Amino acid sequence: MHSSPGNQRISIDPRFRSRPVEIPSNYSFSAMLVIECQ
């Protein structure tokens, strides 16, 4: 299960750079992931 979070982080990384705050609906969801990524 150590590779599970690593793979998810890479998949979300590019998506956040594409539109981090362009989607207000996903703002809450993205904010949570950003905190976990950092």
Automatic annotation (TrEMBL):
Q: What is this protein called?
A: Uncharacterized protein
Species lineage, top-down? Eukaryota, Viridiplantae, Streptophyta, Embryophyta, Tracheophyta
